[in-house]
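Exercise 3.2. Students should predict the tertiary structure of the chain below and write it as structure tokens, then compare their answer with the key that follows.

Predict this chain's 3D structure.
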Amino acid sequence: MPRFDLTTIGEGQLRFSVPAGQRLERAHQLDVHVACTEANVASLLARLGWQCGWITSLPTTPLGKRVANEYRLAGLDLSAIVWSDKDRLATYYVEYAVPPRATQVYFDRANTCFTNLTPEQINWDYLLDTRLLHLSGLTVPLSPTLREIVIEAIQRANARGIAISFDMNHRQRIWTPAQAREAILPLIEKVAILFCSRGDARQVFGIEGAPEEIVTRLGELTGARYIVTSLSSEGLIGWDRQNRVAYHQPARAVTILDRIGAGDAMVGGVLHGWMQNDFAKAVRYGALTAALALSQYGDQVITTRDEVETLLNAVSPDIAR
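Answer key:
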């Protein structure tokens, strides 16, 4: 039996934001949250009772400790973190907005502990002692050495027969769609589960159409058995290639407090169902956990397995006494 249900690699960061109606250039104070796309997925699964490990690199400063402590509270194993006393922590800045303006995100991720990580620093035995390895396309463009790490992780996992989950997670302020397409296509050939939003399918791969057409055309690019596409306010669709069946789950009714992190939460919910060998239920979990993320402040979903199971079949919210 492997030590972990899921392991992952990703960059821990701090998120600084101002609420809608304020501008960053005039901000007098900032809200602070801990962030990491991959660790957000793993921390949700840890809260749902799965054993999860995370590899990153953090500075030996109070800021680095803040990131580690946040994910430690979620139950992530942090024993393979590479601590650095010479490099800095990544940050990003969010300016929330309402129409006609869009929310803006600005990254500050150059020359950080994580971007300077090398394959030789990775504890490969730790990373590969797992049922499922979760990776993200967001990590690939951050530095040449990180691209090497992702490629090697996929090769090693495939050699050991370890299932891989891959989230496309394109960021247009980090690299272009053409650059993403060229780099990502070879990486997703042998993954088990592919996550790709409708927007990423269109921008990166030029795939448009009805939801069923999107997931089946994405299936032509990968050998993944399962393909999951977020449809934003329309919910999500999951395609089981082996059984040739698509599951469409409408979005849950939700009052949106914070959009950032909803995609990670959806991925975590789907993987929660995958861990239970129930893909139809996985798609339902994904819609629910995305809604939970939208209804909470911060990048992570704070919940429990009991709460998720109760809400999965709840008709309408009420006061719990």
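Discussion points: The chain has one domain: 7-312. The mean pLDDT is 95.
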